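Ticket reopened. Same input as before:
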Amino acid sequence: MAGPTDTRLNTQEEITARVKALEAMLIEKGIMTTEAVDRLAEIYENEVGPQLGAKVVARAWSDPEFKARLLADATAACAEMDISGLQGEEMIALENTDDVHNLVVCTLCSCYPWPVLGLPPNWYKAPPYRARIVREPRKVLAEDFGFVVPDSVEIRVWDSSSELRYWVLPKRPEGTEEMGTFDLAALVTRDSMIGVGPAASPSS
Amino acid sequence: MNGVFDLGGTDGLGPVVTQENEPVFRAEWEKPAFAMFASCFRAGLFNVDQFRHGIEKMDPAEYLLTNYYEHWVHTVEHYGEKSGLLDMAELEERTRFYLDNPDAPLPQREDPELLAFVDAAVKHGAPANRDSDKVAQFKVGDRVTIKADSPFGHTRRARYVRGRTGEITAAHGTYLYPDSAGNGGPDAPEHLYTVRFTNEELWGAETAEPNGVVYFDVWEPYFTLAS
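Engineering reply: fixed in the latest deploy. New output:
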């Protein structure tokens, strides 16, 4: 077995062949099929992604009673909109306000609320974010995400160490009072629901 | 175990590098690597915590330098070998075959039940809450200190919260216990809580950022009442 002193990384050709060989063996063992691979890829490429979370947020911005239900029990509120499932069996939505900014991380692995955000971006899974966001969130937001949170706003970092899945209800942008949920949803970015950016402004 | 995967508070890893319009899967091989999780979970090769622990046991240098889905491949291989399902010599041989013949086809098999499982699993997930007659020993508002000792094996008690004191802000009921289930034991449900730590408590008053807190979920065996 290779040790840390003689680590050799796979090339893309090597990892491609390795995964194909592993897949072939798992197919022959009756565990996988290429159809199941295609179906899972299809689901997370086209069906389950941040567009679902954006619909929930837009509704919460527009419907105070729904927002209250979302903050009380995000899993049940999302289920009302037929949004549920794997890696979001129990979800908790965190409301950003003028005084509080929430953001989400998983320092130990890469836990992420799949039913509302889909699969995580690479930076969320990579070491720098997981290492630094609990220690210097203000600095990381400002320097790496271009998002300055004033010192007067408390930053609450939620480290997803259990199977509870946290995500952020961002602040409704100014100048959106007349907008309907369809247009509002277009302003809700993936990053705003992780808490590393604001929702988009209607003027931008 | 104390390992490099336990990244919270580690310095010197450089900036967060984001990518505009990153595709969900950055290479074709990531799709089967991703699908192996659900398929092998269904086959009983591992539970979610064992899956994580297989990744935690990777060569640490490789862990830090490889793409995320390579971690998934590693843990599938780990449990495939451990359970006797996979012959690693055969895996090496077939890898060489596909390196020499990258366009050679995969074996084909029909499995409508697996397809149905995929859709059902995505929609309904695999909840981690577990019934237990254990009575909660702590309540919201309690000040608690995370145990400082370092266990071997799988745990979610990250190093940066060990020995630190915070306040319970939520009590969630009983959930399967990763320190048991992730190490091959039973679900062994324990009460789960959320604890809030101030930045000053975690990092020291000299270096902590102002006006900030960290919330961290802990199972009852992870902590004691603060003295």
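The mean pLDDT of chain B is 97. The first strand of chain B starts at residue 143 and ends at 146. Please confirm and we'll close it.
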